[in-house]
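Is S-adenosylmethionine placement plausible here? Inputs below.
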Amino acid sequence: MGIIREVTIGDCRLILGDCLKVMPLLGKFDAVVTDPPYGINYNPTRSQSSASSGKRKNQSKVIGDSKPFDPSPLFVMAPKFIIWGANNFSNKIEGCSGWLAWDKRDSGTLFRGFMASDFELAASNVTGRTHVISHKWCGHLRQSERDLYVHPTQKPVAVISWCLDFLNKQDFILDPFMGSGTTGVACVKLGRKFTGIELDPDYFDIACERIRKAYEQPDMFVAPPEKPVEPKQEAML
Ligand SMILES: C[S@@+](CC[C@H](N)C(=O)[O-])C[C@H]1O[C@@H](n2cnc3c(N)ncnc32)[C@H](O)[C@@H]1O
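Reply from A.M.:
I modeled the complex. Tokens:
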């Protein structure tokens, strides 16, 4: 079965289902921005302390992570891509022109999280260079979203918002491996159109809730809608 369930919230279309079956049913997008299963058989119970988790779900293994990841179905969905974790399958990335890096360390102490990587990489074709953002995220030491432990490989909204800035404001974004909906939350905050797909019904529900809240609770990171430029008085004389 393709689409199991579908919810629309504002400019976000959220689909419960297997993205490999759902994507052929969708039209084309401007950009795929995603954080797929890396194919590394990540075991969150070894790298997160149980005390850190408000919900046990964030210690579950990631669906699909025990087998090598094939990014090729993503490239037919949009001309532009930003794919996190792509250093784990870099030989399968077509047309990568630059890398985005997220330095997760505590820059004060350069503390290394237990079993965690110092930084994460995204392959992209939206820049010809390399770029880095520093945003502390190791165990309890988090620069943002300290009370929101909902997914074992959850990304900070701040980091995904940063990478969306490499795209055009009008770009229609697809995240086929939505998880807890971080890309969707960042799209809401930046006023972008978004479609997300997630296979796990618990994460799908969490994503719906986070995206709904993002619309209800705009914060200081929300870019105000751009106003049309008023013609100057003198120009009308
Ligand atoms: C690395 S996680 C994404 C985490 C996300 N960046 C976040 O901040 O919450 C990858 C997600 O892809 C989902 N997934 C794996 N295979 C899938 C498939 N075939 N279709 C849709 N979702 C899938 C997993 O359930 C997991 O939630």
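Short version: The chain has seven helices and eleven strands.
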